[in-house]
Amino acid sequence: MKKINFKVTIIGGGYAGISILDKLKNNQQLELTLIDKSQTHLLQTHLHKYLSNYYSKQDITFDHKKYCIQNNIKFICNDVTSIDYENNYVTTKESQINYYDYLVVAIGMTSFFPKQIKNVLEYTKDIKNINNLDYYKDKFQKMLESTSMNNNIVIVGGGVSGIQIACEYAYTINKKGFDSHKIQVTIIEGMDTLLPGLDPFLIKKAEERCKELNINVVNNYFASEILGDKVILSNNREISYDMLLFVIGASGNLIPTNTDSIKTNTRNQLIVDEYYRVTPYKNVFAIGDITEAQDTKTKTSQTPTAQSARMQAELAAQNILNDINNTTLITNNISNKGILIDLGGPNCAVGRLFNFNISGKLALWLKKLIYSLHNKKLR
Fold it and tell me: Global pTM?
């Protein structure tokens, strides 16, 4: 019988959590535990494909318990209510205590709904919740099957997720032979362009695609109030809707702790050191969207993406093993390699990788390749 030397607990079974498990699962020195409040892993990079009914639930969700059984990992399906960093244990909702030698916090972030927008919580749903995805998916299908005209889908947020959802919806509408008189898709983005902050090539291609798909784009005005059938903008303009999606960012949902020494930023992300450790605890790592870390090339904060999560997971996994073996830890060497954006349709995608612009079939093929590689970890 093998001797277990080190207990490693991972909180969060999202992209980062699964990626670090994949790197550690075959190490005989480790006893791995995954704690997640959900039974399923949700592939958030392809939610737009599920919302349009192009992907099934099986394409974007994977069973945590099945994965853990296959890989000899202990799985606890529960909320973590507190972390005791001083005494090396976490407590779940049922007061179950789980001790660790190393802890990895990979809890991700939740959708951000600004409180200054009146009624925002009353009329919006978090699309990162699978039940809410089902709500939006079913509602869209009913719109397609209905005989009524002048339906309106409003998406607040013109970032990557908002663009992908809008283009996927609009492409599906067009493919069914409908036009904007049947269902009008509108994007509301408070900045002066779509994809604010991204490369001009990506912005140009996204704006061109929205025009091709007859997507109504409203720039420069923020949502200030939500009512049951309309969004009121900061210039008092009213935009009616039959279905409303908010995709304007995310915020960390930190786990309570018994110490005030943990450093966080204004988005409730954990600030880590150059080894991805949560200061001042040398046996606690944080990876994924919950983490604020520096992009070593741009010297700015890393963008919370699946790509960053995977690279952070690989580095943190190696540093856990290096620490166990008393060898030098690897410093942060992560820089974003680029981005790929699905613009709806079989050959419509755009990207910028290693400072090269790509679009069309190649961009879409690369996005599908990344999807399939991640799936292999879970099948």
Answer: 0.91
